[in-house]
Write a structure and sequence with these properties.
The structure holds 2 protein chains of 2 kinds. Chain A is an alpha/beta fold. Helices cover 27% and strands 30% of the residues of chain A. Chain A contains 8 helices and 11 strands. In chain A, helix 6 links the parallel strand 4 and strand 5. Chain A starts with 10 loop residues before the first helix and ends with a strand. By secondary structure, chain B is of the alpha/beta class. Helix content of chain B is 30%, strand content 34%. In chain B, the strands form 2 sheets. Chain B has a 7-stranded mixed beta sheet with strand order 3-2-1-4-5-11-10, sandwiched between helices. Chain B has a 4-stranded antiparallel beta sheet with strand order 6-7-8-9, with no helix packed on it. The two termini of chain B are 36 Å apart. Classes of the chains: A alpha/beta, B alpha/beta. At the A-B interface, helix 7 and helix 8 of A face helix 7 and helix 8 of B.
C-alpha cells in the first residue's frame, strides 16, 4: 500500500499526532460498548498512537493494534509502557499493512475507526483489507468501519477545514492550515497541510504534508462489504450515539458480520 | 402494474416517451459495437418501444427485448410490422419484469440503457436484476449499463430543482408544454421527478397529465462494487455513448462489465 500514508511515516508527524487531536474522543464510548458486547479479542486497524487501543485495554479487552507506521507504533509503545502491568499484558502491537495482513488469531471485534479506511485509495486495497478482516473474524464476530459522511454541500463548495492550533510535543506553538481539493470523478480529496511552527524562542519554520483520502458514499460501502465477504450490513449509524443515518449525519458507522 | 412503472403505464405516455427518446439518445452505435464484439444473441431489459433494439436486429443480431409495459411493447410490435420478414424473425418481445425474468437461454450481450436500471430503488431489486443478468449471460458475456452521472449542484439545491419547461408535439397532434420538479432524498439516494404535461389540442381543449417518476441515483464506485458483488468484472466506464473517458462533468456513466467465469 499506499505511499499515501507517508504522512504518518515520519517521526515528526508521529510525535505531533496526539497533540493535533484537540477534540475529546467522541467515538470512544461506542467502541468501549461494542468491545464489552463482543466475544474474544479486539483488533484495531491503523491503531496509530493508541488513542482508542489503550482505553479499550484498560477496560479489560485483550487488544491487538496494527499500524503501518513504525513511528506511530513507537509512540504507542511508550504509552503502553506507562500502563500498569496487567494492562500492558493485554496489548499487542503489530507493524503491518491493513490491506494485507495475516495474524495468528481470530477476533470477536475488528475496528477501523476514524477514517483510516479512507486512506485505502484503490478498490484492490479496499477489498484486500475487507477480505483480511473477514478471515480474521470469529464466526459471530463483527466489523465496525467509520468513515465521514460526505456532505454534498461541502463537497460542492470545496470547503477546507478550519485552521487547527495546538501546542507541539516540545512546547512549540503550531498552526496547521489545510487547503482541500476534490476530485469528483475519482471520489478523492487531497489536503495540502502547512504547519507553521513557532518555537519557545520565537524561531519559526514550517512543515508540509499532503494527505489524500477517498470519500465513500453509503451504498458504495454496502455493496463493497457484500462484494468482499460480508453479510448485508447489520447497522448503519449516523453518529457515535448510534442514531440512524440521515442526510444530515456527520458520520457513517457500518457494522457488518462476515458471510458464512 | 408495478408502482415504479406508472410513468409509461398508459398509451399516451408510452408514445410520447418513444418519440422524445428517439431524437434525444444516441446510444445505438455503442450497443451495436458491443453486440458485434460479444456476439449475439442480444437481450435488452426495459426495451420500451425497441428504439435501441430494432437497429440491432436490422444489423443482423438475434434480439430479445423485455419490458414491463404492454403499451411500450405494443408500439414496438407495430414498428416490427413494417420490417422485412427476416428482421421480424430475429426479434422477440417479452412482457416481463427486469427483476424476475427467466428466458431459459443465454446471451452474448445484455444491455440496460436510458437509465432504466435507476427505476430499481432498493439494493434488493438492483441485486435481483443483476443476478438475473448474470444467469442469462454466457461466461465472458458482456453487460452494458447506462445511468446518469448525478450532478452534485442539483442534489444540494434546497427545496429541489425546477426543471426547464419543454415544448413539443404530442403523439395525438396536441401541443405539449411540460414542466417538472425534482426532489432528492440524499440519505437514500433517490429522487422523485414530478412531471406535468399540459396538452393543448387543435380545438383549444387542454388536458393535464401528471406523472411521478421515482429513480435511484448511483455514484460511480457504487455501481462498480454492485457489479462486482453480483458476479461481474468492470471492463470500462465511459462518460457518454461516444466512449469518452469518464470525468466529473460527464453526463452519463456507461459501464461495460464481463460476467466472471
Amino acid at each position: 500500500m499506499s505511499s499515501e500514508l507517508s504522512r504518518y511515516q515520519d517521526p515528526w508527524t508521529a510525535e505531533h499526532y496526539d497533540a493535533q487531536i484537540t477534540w475529546p474522543n467522541p467515538d470512544l464510548p461506542l467502541y468501549l460498548e461494542m468491545a464489552a458486547e463482543s466475544p474474544g479479542r479486539v483488533l484495531e486497524l491503523a491503531c496509530g498512537t493508541g488513542r482508542l487501543l489503550l482505553p479499550l485495554a484498560r477496560q479489560g479487552a485483550t487488544v491487538t493494534g496494527l499500524d503501518i507506521s513504525s513511528h506511530m507504533l513507537a509512540v504507542a509503545r511508550r504509552k503502553v509502557a506507562a500502563e500498569p502491568e496487567e494492562v500492558q499484558a493485554r496489548v499487542t502491537l503489530v507493524e503491518g499493512d491493513m490491506s494485507k495482513f495475516a495474524l495468528p488469531r481470530a477476533y470477536g471485534l475488528i475496528l477501523i475507526p476514524f477514517r483510516s479506511f479512507q486512506a485505502l485509495l484503490t478498490r484492490a486495497d479496499q477489498c484486500g483489507c475487507l477480505e483480511c478482516c473477514a478471515k480474521h473474524l470469529l464466526p459471530e464476530g463483527r466489523l465496525v468501519i467509520n468513515v465521514f459522511h460526505p456532505w454534498l454541500s461541502k463537497l460542492v463548495a470545496q470547503k477546507s477545514a478550519e485552521p487547527n492550533e495546538y501546542t507541539g510535543p516540545n512546547g512549540e506553538a503550531v498552526k496547521a492550515v489545510s487547503q482541500v481539493q476534490f476530485d469528483f470523478a475519482e471520489q478523492m480529496l487531497t489536503s495540502h497541510i502547512t504547519y507553521e511552527i513557532t518555537s519557545a524562542s520565537s524561531e519559526t519554520r514550517s512543515h508540509e504534508h499532503v494527505l489524500r483520502l477517498r470519500y465513500f458514499f453509503r451504498f458504495e460501502m454496502e455493496w463493497m462489504l457484500e462484494a468482499c465477504g460480508f453479510e448485508e450490513v447489520e447497522a448503519l449509524y449516523g453518529d457515535f450515539e448510534r442514531r440512524g443515518f440521515t442526510a444530515e449525519s456527520p458520520e457513517m458507522v457500518f457494522v457488518a458480520r462476515r458471510a458464512r | 402494474m408495478e408502482p415504479e412503472m406508472t410513468l409509461y403505464g398508459d398509451e399516451w405516455s408510452a408514445e410520447t416517451l418513444d418519440s422524445l427518446t428517439r431524437s434525444h439518445i444516441s446510444d445505438v452505435g455503442l450497443w451495436l459495437a458491443l453486440a458485434n464484439e460479444a456476439g449475439g444473441p442480444v437481450l435488452e431489459l426495459a426495451c420500451g418501444a425497441a428504439r435501441a433494439l430494432l437497429p440491432l436486429a436490422q444489423a443482423g443480431h438475434e434480439c430479445v427485448g423485455v419490458d414491463l409495459s404492454p403499451h411500450m411493447l405494443a408500439i414496438a410490435r407495430r414498428k416490427l410490422e413494417g420490417e422485412p420478414e427476416e428482421v421480424r424473425g430475429r426479434m422477440s418481445l417479452v412482457e416481463g419484469n427486469m427483476k424476475s425474468f427467466e428466458l431459459g437461454r443465454e446471451f452474448g450481450l445484455i444491455f440496460i440503457t436510458a437509465r432504466s436500471l435507476q427505476a430499481l430503488l432498493s439494493r434488493e431489486d438492483q441485486r435481483a436484476c443483476l443476478q438475473r443478468c448474470a444467469r442469462h449471460l454466457r461466461p465472458g458475456g458482456l453487460l452494458g449499463i447506462d445511468v446518469f452521472n448525478p450532478r452534485l449542484d442539483r442534489l444540494v439545491r434546497p427545496g429541489g430543482v425546477d426543471e426547464e419547461p419543454d415544448e413539443y408535439d404530442g403523439p395525438d397532434g396536441c401541443r405539449v408544454r411540460e414542466t417538472g420538479h425534482t426532489d432528492y432524498d440524499l440519505a437514500n439516494q433517490t429522487l422523485v421527478w414530478r412531471s406535468r404535461a399540459e396538452c393543448t389540442s387543435g380545438d383549444g381543449q387542454v388536458v393535464v397529465r401528471e406523472y411521478d417518476c421515482p429513480l435511484h441515483y448511483f455514484f460511480r464506485f457504487e455501481v462498480e462494487w454492485m457489479l462486482e458483488a453480483c458476479g461481474f468484472e468492470v471492463e470500462a466506464l465511459y462518460g457518454d455513448f461516444a466512449r469518452s473517458p469518464f470525468t466529473a462533468e460527464s453526463p452519463e456513466m456507461v459501464f461495460v462489465a464481463r460476467r466472471k467465469p
